[in-house]
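Thread amino acids onto this structure.
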């Protein structure tokens, strides 16, 4: 068992550029073990047993992946494509309905759904009728808790009044809008033209439809992006009075994501310039009154994520930081990942093969991993470090601390006092580096992971 350290409520961060750490390529640790440890030995039988064995009255979180967009942004790292005649959205929705029914039949009857998240891709590519169908399937298969959080990722460019009202009548409580950058020239370089008025009107329409939680995603490290561009976008987010802002660094991996070849590598801010952009976003948002959450989120003081952080109940899942305390996250759709106590598994990524599996009433699960006791311990330690910036080390780690930890302590990024390991103000921007010290499987794999900052 890992004892829990009292979370450090200080939010102070010192932004000192240390290239040897900032340029390390590391997992984002939205799960542990990470996806490169998944294997094909996990199939329907193991998943069915794990789903059926969830504790009585388990609280569930559901994720629906919609892997389609109207147009591809060149920076995109998501599993998505533009729909074609051979790969239409309509038959994908039918497959999702079938998977929802298939999984619901395996779960304990008294499980309760507390969170539903539509991600992608762009869920707003769905028609209002398709949105209604998916909610009908969800409500037929699952019992929703009193006031579940129902959230969607949205591209402001595709958010029509009809789509907003379809999500709203089905209980939408939160929308995350991809804003990324406001500057028109940078937008051109990333193939995402999005005038600020279109974002403002999307936010206004969502609020008028009764959607209370509005999040903005923004980026740094984009081609030709400057410090001023970052400050401009962060200031815009604060002026919209949104509840949460997530700040992501662009990961340039054109060998994995072909459309990123449209981005001119020579124009990417590198090294300290990139680091200072992360700092500028954080400083702008904090000066506007947002509280830093973990290493890449910012929340208004009254937001539920800020409250969860204060209580030491912040969590990390495949969507990043969350206040969702569900026992199990069940994913639907091509490439979606599910996390149950002791097991993580993933659906086939190819949409045609996903549809084929469901049309033949087969499970679309193709790979995963069963967590050993050691894996679970590492997973808990990494999660608490990333969320609370402190963790109490169990005896075995105290007796035999990881070699890499000494390096982060020497650099002033972490301190060990008794059995309590704390990330310092200097180390907070580098918390992924500290967390990685506990990852026994992390091997240098150039180009596989994103830069630490
Ligand atoms: S809208 Fe979002 S998911 Fe779609 S291509 Fe652009 S960044 Fe990727």
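Threaded sequence (453 positions):
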């Amino acid at each position: 068992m890992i004892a829990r350290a009292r979370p450090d409520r200080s939010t102070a961060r010192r932004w000192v550029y240390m290239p040897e750490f900032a340029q390390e390529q590391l997992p984002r640790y939205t799960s542990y073990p990470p996806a490169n440890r998944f294997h094909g030995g996990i199939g329907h039988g193991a998943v069915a047993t794990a789903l059926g064995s969830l504790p009585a009255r388990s609280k569930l979180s559901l994720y629906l992946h919609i892997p389609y967009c109207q147009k591809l942004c060149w920076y995109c790292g998501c599993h998505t494509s533009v729909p074609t005649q051979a790969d239409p959205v309509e038959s994908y929705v039918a497959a999702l309905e079938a998977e929802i029914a298939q999984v619901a039949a395996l779960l304990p009857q008294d499980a309760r759904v507390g969170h539903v998240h539509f991600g992608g891709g762009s869920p707003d590519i769905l028609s209002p009728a398709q949105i209604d169908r998916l909610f009908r399937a969800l409500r037929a298969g699952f019992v929703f808790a009193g006031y579940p959080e129902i959230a969607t990722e949205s591209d402001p460019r595709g958010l029509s009044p009809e789509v907003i009202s379809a999500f709203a009548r089905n209980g939408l409580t939160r929308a995350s809008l991809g804003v990324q950058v406001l500057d028109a020239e940078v937008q051109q370089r990333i193939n995402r033209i999005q005038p600020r008025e279109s974002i403002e009107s999307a936010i206004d329409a969502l609020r008028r439809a009764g959607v209370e939680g509005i999040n903005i995603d923004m980026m740094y490290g984009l081609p030709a992006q400057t410090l001023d561009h970052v400050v401009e976008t962060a200031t815009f987010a604060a002026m919209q009075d949104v509840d949460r802002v997530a700040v992501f660094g662009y990961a340039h991996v054109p060998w994995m994501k072909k459309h990123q070849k449209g981005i001119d590598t020579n124009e990417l801010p590198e090294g300290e310039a990139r680091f200072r952009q992360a700092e500028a976003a954080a400083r702008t948002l904090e000066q506007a009154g947002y509280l830093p959450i973990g290493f890449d989120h910012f929340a208004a003081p009254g937001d539920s994520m800020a409250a969860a952080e204060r209580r030491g109940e912040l969590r990390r899942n495949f969507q990043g930081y969350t206040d969702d305390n569900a026992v199990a996250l069940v994913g639907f759709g091509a490439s979606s990942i599910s996390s149950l106590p002791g097991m993580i598994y993933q659906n086939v990524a190819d949409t045609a093969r996903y549809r084929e599996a469901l049309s033949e009433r087969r499970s679309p699960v193709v790979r995963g991993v069963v967590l050993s006791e050691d894996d679970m311990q590492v997973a808990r330690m990494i999660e608490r470090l990333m969320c609370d910036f402190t963790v109490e080390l169990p005896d075995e780690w105290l007796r035999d601390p990881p070699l890499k930890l000494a390096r982060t302590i020497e650099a002033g990024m972490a301190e060990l006092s008794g059995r309590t390991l704390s990330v310092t103000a200097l180390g907070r921007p580098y918390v992924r580096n500290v967390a990685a010290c506990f990852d026994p499987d992390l091997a240098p794999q150039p180009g596989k992971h994103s830069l630490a900052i």
